[in-house]
Amino acid sequence: RKREREKERERENWREERRVGKRKGEGVEVGIIIMPLIYGLVAREAEVLAEYYCVHGNAPKIARRILKKIPQQAHKKSYTFESQIFHYQVDETGLTYLVLADSELSWRVAFTCIYDIRSQFTAVCGESWRNASEGSLNDIFARIIREKLEYWSSPESDKIQRAQQQVDQAKTNMIHNIDKVLDRGDKIDTLVDRTDVLQAQSSQFKTTSTSLKNTIWWQDFKLQLICAAVVVVVLLVILLVVLNAVGAFN
Predict the structure, then answer these.
(1) Residue 72 contacts residue 90 (beta carbons within 8 Å)
(2) What does the alpha-carbon distance between residue 137 and residue 49 come to, in Å, rounded to a whole number?
(3) Is the pTM of this model over 0.70?
């Protein structure tokens, strides 16, 4: 048991050293805090078109092994490797978006980051990825991957978590106020008034959550409309080419 406890302490020390960037041989400057999201890429099948990693390590090598095993139909999945998780999503065009996250980062935040990278890639690169080669889009998109990893690594980016923190803070304030009321022997109607304030805060939280849900739904709906419009335009172009080929316009 003593040896097991010592091994567990060694593992905890290793995780802490890696988190603050003090472990030697990993190419991390001393004192730099490693983000929960440390690596991201965009790939066409097993060919990485653009990638960014904030620390040097074996993440790119492992990611490429994963890419070779990924089915090309649209889906999303996560792979666990030691204390980190590779999250990825394959879209309808066959592009794969992958991020490497710390195991403490929520699944929801990781895939929200992937969705954000995917939206930006579509807007910035358009259809140029179809003829792109290994790493050829790094110049125009690696910086954007870095920005998205940094943004979604920040606790402030998670609106749902921030709302939950507000609720927890409201609960803490309520308990603290009740203790103060009991200590002072205030009248019960004062407690009722403060309960009404808490209810108002709960209603505000519910309104905020509903607004956030509607915003996310509207973003998904706009993306679907854009995809549908692209499909219609492509079909019209194909139809016009076919009609022209058979002489329908002569």
Answers:
(1) yes
(2) 6
(3) no
